[in-house]
Amino acid sequence: MNYKLNIFSLLFLLLSIYIFPSRFSLFDNMASASWKNSQNLNVTISNSVPGNENANCLVRKLNAVQLEDKNKYNNVILMVPPGGQNSWLNGEYQLKINKRSYFKAKIGFLAISKGSDGAVFEIVFRQGSNEYILYHVYKNYDKSLLNVELDFSLSLNFHDAVSITSNTIEGYFILRVLPNNTNTGDLACWIDPVIITNEASFPDPDEKGITDQGKDFKNVALSWADDSSIRIQLETYSDFTINKFEIRISTNYDLNPEYRISCSPDKYKCTGTNVNLTGVAYKENHTYTIKVPARDIFNPLFEQYVLTIQVPPGEGGDRIPDDASAGLIFTPQSCKIAYGDDKDHDTIFDPIEAYLLNVYSPYLKFSKDGGNENYPPVDPLMYVRHCSLLPEGEEDATPKIKNDILKYDPLKVLTGINGNEFSDITRTPRKAKFYLNIWNQFRDGYEAGAYPVGYTWNQIRNLKNVGLYGHVAPYYANNNVNNIRGSHGKYNDDTSIRIEFYQFFGYSDVNVAGDIGDHEADWEIPCIVTIDRNSRKIKEVLHYAHGVEMCYDTSKTKNVVLISGNWGEEHRGPNYNTGYFEIGKPGGGLGVIDTYLEKAQNNLVRFMLDEYTRLYTHPVVHIEKGCHGCWPSEHWGYYGAPKHRGDYISYQSFSPENLGEVEYPFSDTAKIIVHYNGRWGTYSIKTGKPPSPALHREWIWLKNSALYTQIPNDNFEY
User: Fold this and answer.
1) SS3 content of the chain, % helix, strand, coil (to 5)
2) Mean pLDDT in the chain?
3) 446: which DSSP letter?
4) Window from 44-58, 405-419, 701-715 with minimum mean pLDDT
5) Which is nearest to 96 in space by CA: 10, 158, 160, 7?
6) What CA–CA distance (Å, rounded) separates 691 from 367?
């Protein structure tokens, strides 16, 4: 199968090959689909519920069936994949796909799916011989269902195949299920999967403090016309009295508008700032309709925009949306409006953070050095599930929290108590004396037959984000000033955004005499990308190996060379040098002694092409075998460290999970990672065990963070 991976996992849209209804049910149209397995054999649809046996490769159309959350559901498509490596089960619908619709479903397992080690759910579009993975997720049997809502308009693969003047493309829309390791108990379900015509509207409820409903907006709606114009409709309540308002359009998500549309009581006349707009608004039935020439503002392929609508205080003081720190995210391709949440309170909308993490995610190249990499990326949640929490760094110490507790509830790692210290940084704001002791057989992240079983190299290569996490933060002038390194990382100002990536490994194996440097757990930083907040152009890229920072300032680029085969782009700076030199060596107490570190600054950096933006934005990262230092190329070295040629497994990382901020983590997994204030790992020879990402000096904290100011500066590590 020829997979072409889409970088977005946000939302997506579709149409049937017939006249598209407002709601197209994939459940109701199962008979029109083709159901095939990985042996290309047809699979017959049945209406019977399988028993608690090891069913193999079947499709069922079910109603009133109990799922893993113990509730009953209708319109359930049951898909049980065949067993065996690289096996799958497909449901293929021949459709015309339209960029103004979206797909919705829930996914999960039947209640009787006992013994399942989870399954992979995919949504795929095939045109000719090319397949485009639009959605990919691993789901285990955890007594809950997962919501899926995907907007097809954000897929580059769609725009590769559809011209700007066309709205549809014909091909095969595919529901796919793959087994994790075995298909035992994999009674996988798609619950009420539907394709819905997009409705570009946002209801605006009554604002607090505005007693006259007539001075309150009711709804805002958008439509993208065939003549490349956008119609903005603003509906008010029946006792309409608003005369003045302003529509603000921002292209860079900071709410500073590049375009303004001002509407005045002069026959509801509208004028534009930075846009050719005069006298194009009209009012009818309590609704303003304003026609905006899209070609003057919008790029219909790549951009999202932020809209805010404001009424001056004398006219009622209404605002859409109500939150002054947010806006409505508008995607011109689909005319989709979504509220711009900022759940981690860092002034960057959450969907934009997801966008940045995808567009600037690293291309990871693992290495050989006398053998294959035996310690691949590891899921930190799986790691915690195979640990006990100790009060000291000796493997035989009496646990504060035993493994049989963490195995089933890893959040309990944040409830440790050791004297007057808690294992949660929000309760004890410092590096505390706790150690996660991993069972030795799980240091490589996988053990057949275990719970949870973890991930093999093949699964890691396919998933492309195992153990990889991101943190997006705005730079503020003098923020974290004690954590910014000397002459590097200099763009700590109000115009920059930092995109940090953290990769977790279960073990570091230096493979030198005496195992000096070996230790459990690694939180490596593959790279950090600093971009301009307005243009989103890359300002600098930082790589890290053995606590040493290698910085490349793109403003100093002397020459740009396409790498052989055009797979990447190499920027060469004033210190460009591919000869061998060492940037550091261990000193007393294994502190770092710089040797020729300055030679590595502004030397070179490489980028891979991003499929969505068609720009070279993905930093290439060469990772040492076993020791996992992260380098911008195969060149240079560190005294006694393994090689980093990048000659083993490579992949473009995909959709790393966003950690959010320490005060506002995005998920339970993120909470464990950023709140745990002890050490990851117990065993080591002479090196220390790593702290959590937020206790690295590279982590940028929220501006004016009260928690950050309580943490002693010497508790942060490089």
Assistant:
1) 15, 40, 50
2) 81
3) B
4) 44-58
5) 158
6) 25
Q: Which residue has the tokens 């028993």?
A: 51
Residue 321: asked if its preceding bond is cis (omega within 30°), the reply is yes
Top mean-pLDDT range of 201-215, 238-252, 397-411, 671-685: 397-411
Average pLDDT over residues 455-483: 82
C-alpha pair distances (Å), 634 with each of 400, 560, 669 = 43, 18, 33
Quick check: 338 and 457 in contact, CB under 8 A?
A: no
H or E, element range at 45: strand 45-46
Q: Which of 519, 527, 566 is nearest to 544 (CA)?
A: 527
DSSP 19: S
Measured in whole angstroms, how far is the alpha carbon of residue 593 from the centre of its chain? 36
| Sequence letter at residue 369 | D
User: Between the CA of residue 713 and those of 18, 422, 588, 638, what are the distances in Å?
Assistant: 64, 19, 22, 27
pLDDT confidence bin for 185, thresholds 50/70/90: confident
Helix (H) or strand (E) holding 553: strand 548-553
In angstroms, the CA 139 to CA 188 distance is 9
Q: What is the DSSP string of 582-625?
A: BSEEE-GGG-EEESSGGGGTTSEEEEEEPTTT-SEEEEEEEE-T
pLDDT band of 1, cuts 50, 70, 90? very low
CB 655 within 8 A of CB 601: no
CB atoms within 10 A of CB 535: 10
Task: Report H helices in 47-87.
Answer: none
Q: Which amino acid is at 404?
A: D
Distance CA 60, CA 73 (A): 14
Annotate 313-343 with b (16+ C-beta within 10 A) or e (fewer). eeebebbbbeeeebbbbbbbbbbbbbbbebe
d(CA 490, CA 540): 9
Helix (H, G, I), strand (E, B) or coil at 491: coil
pLDDT tens digits for range 310-368: 888 777 778 887 766 667 877 765 566 766 678 898 888 787 788 889 889 999 999 99
Q: What is the 3-state secondary structure (H, E, C) of 190-248?
A: EEEEEEEECCCEEECCCCCCCCCHHHCEEEEEEEECCCCEEEEEEEECCCCCCCCEEEE
Task: For 467-495, give one letter per residue: b (16+ CB within 10 A) or e.
Answer: bbbbbbbbbbeebbeebbeeebbebbeee
Ramachandran bin of 449, using left for φ above 0, alpha for ψ from -120 to 50, beta for the remaining angles: left
- Integer Cα distance of 473 and 554 in angstroms: 20
Residue 110 has pLDDT above 80, yes or no: yes
At 382, which helix (H) or strand (E)? helix 380-385
CA distances from 31 to 57, 65, 97, 103, 214 (A): 17, 20, 19, 19, 51
C-alpha distances in Å from residue 156, one per residue of 151, 162, 194, 651, 717: 12, 10, 22, 19, 39
Q: How far apart, in whole angstroms, are the C-alpha atoms of residue 680 and residue 98?
A: 48
| Tokens of residue 77, six digits | 């498509």
